[in-house]
Amino acid sequence: MLRAAVSRLRAHLHPHPHAHHHHGLPSVTPAPPRDPERPPRLLVVQPRLRPGSLLDSKLAEALNLANSLEEPRDGFYKEGLAAKGAPPHLVAQNPSSRGRSHVDKFFGPGTVDNVKCYLRTSESEEGVDAVFVNAILTGIQQRNLEVAWGKPVLDRVGLIIEIFNAHAETKEAKLQSELAALMYMKTRLVRVRGPGGRLTFGSSGEAEVVSARGRGSGGRGFISGAGETELQLQRRRIQECRVRLLAQIEDVRRTRAIQRSNRKRHGNSFGQELVTVAVVGYTNAGKSTLVSALSETDLYSDDRLFATVDPRLRSVILPSGRKALLSDTVGFISDLPVQLVEAFHATLEEVVEADMLVHVLDSSAPNIEEHRSTVLQVLQQIGVSQDKINSMIEVWNKIDIVDNNDNDVTDDIEDEIFLTEGEEDKEEELFSENDVPAEESSFESLDDGTDSEYLSEENLEGNNGEISSSLEPSEMRAMNSVSSSSKDCFGELCGPETISTDSCSSTQPMSTCHVKTSAVTGTGLQELLELIDKKLTERQTIVERSYGPFDRKWRPSSSVVGEKAAEQ
Ligand SMILES: Nc1nc2c(ncn2[C@@H]2O[C@H](COP(=O)(O)OP(=O)(O)OP(=O)(O)O)[C@@H](O)[C@H]2O)c(=O)[nH]1
Ligand SMILES: [Mg+2]
């Protein structure tokens, strides 16, 4: 009921369908009649990034995000993600890379026009329901782009929230994604002067936009008075909604806390404390697949991003016979504002309170380093102790596809990147320069401010080689070198015997134990279970040895500390 109320509110504030294609709300411009069952079709606009490999991975993620916005019916999606193919997309000049982000529309006038042209020509074909700009826009920029393009515009945060909303199934996940939506919307209230000179909300008017942050009447005379009142009304409604949501989420949190303490108190049938291992990681790393494989159960896994929004617990018997609970949870992603992470507080508390963390990484991802640092950052944000982060086990998953991942990222992307006439020579230069090692390639100086902002299709002919070769991810090289340096630990147990080796010492941040796995083929799963077992035993010994409640943190065993001290 609350969800419906929020939807109504959102529709009122935001009267276009980007948020709710699935709810069939009216659109800004009369869109061609479309099948309400069909997931929304988004045009992806990706600001250009350097080096090329970074652009490739961000674009691939953007396309995956665009394809992920779909509501499952009875727990299933209409078609597999692979069947969908890449959505239409453009690579645009990145205004922020030149330090001159346009306050009013984010992009420069050339880009805005080109996207408009693209939309006009595509209208006759399949049509696009909304535009997804893979950047963080201000409310004003979003609204101005909507006016310019005549289509709903979603930025990165907006789309992710919509995906959360579409995928949430349990009450807990629904409440939290509603809260995320509300918090996002609150920063996005803008007034627009409508066609009749009236101030309205939404994108029907021309671009006289006033920030909702309440810059006040600012000498705007009588119209601003009425506008302010309406704005205040909207803000109050949002505030009321938020208070109600927070109260309900507090209930969820309380229930979860009780469940957790029951688990701790009653433990398993042997009277042992029932420990929880939280499985965390970037979205699509394979957390659900891994938890399913380890626990021999069936959790929903999918190539869609944020396939899991609902937290799930699965029990697993470790090699020692001890029973543990694995907690599968929502994945993380880069560039999410902290308030949105906070909206998922109740769910993420499971991670904070877990006895141990397992960090799943997709080792086939070209920007694995960025994924890793995003996850570490979020863990810190939600209040996981540094000790727990340091003693986390890293799982390098999808090892089965690591060797042949060299060209899968751009395979179906390349032909659709656009170039504008007049820009050919320069762009050719850009692409061939991608051959140089990633660290050395900086092309910012080549962007000299012309307004032609696209790469044209014809121009990519003959350049494909360069693009693919630019894909060789330097991160993978870095990873391989880590891999060889951590051989001592790898595949073995990183217990007290090996803890003094560089690769596994928990006293050294970031030198975490890792296991290479494939959740699909089962490679490395036994090693992982053994490692979890070992770490838990280690932890328990420490807890037992400690004297007071303040010592109940993970620490290297005293013998190791003693050894270290003896060395010095
Ligand atoms: N080749 C290969 N594919 C894998 C492996 N593990 C998972 N996948 C695939 O990767 C995709 C994502 O897996 P999920 O388990 O849904 O990933 P997740 O981390 O739970 O993702 P979110 O819930 O969306 O955050 C699915 O299509 C899986 O089949 C693996 O070890 N090898
Ligand atoms: Mg999942």
UniProtKB/TrEMBL annotation:
Q: Which UniProt keywords apply?
A: GTP-binding, Magnesium, Metal-binding, Nucleotide-binding
Q: One GO CC term of this entry? A: cytoplasm
Q: PANTHER family under this entry? A: GTP-BINDING PROTEIN HFLX, GTPASE HFLX
Q: Which InterPro entries match?
A: G_HFLX_dom, GTP-bd, GTP-bd_M, GTPase_HflX, GTPase_HflX_N, GTPase_HflX_N_sf, P-loop_NTPase
Q: Where do the record's region annotations for Disordered lie? A: 15-40, 423-474
Start and end residues of each Hflx-type G domain: 275-540
Compositionally skewed regions (Low complexity) per UniProt: 461-470
**Which regions are flagged for Acidic residues bias?**
423-460
Which top-level group of life is the source organism from?
Eukaryota
Q: Does the keyword Disulfide bond apply?
A: no
What's the protein here called?
Os03g0727900 protein
* Transmembrane segments annotated in the record for this chain: none
GO molecular function annotation: GTP binding; metal ion binding; ribosome binding
* Compositional bias segments (type: Basic residues): 15-24
Pfam families, alphabetized: GTP-bdg_M, GTP-bdg_N, MMR_HSR1
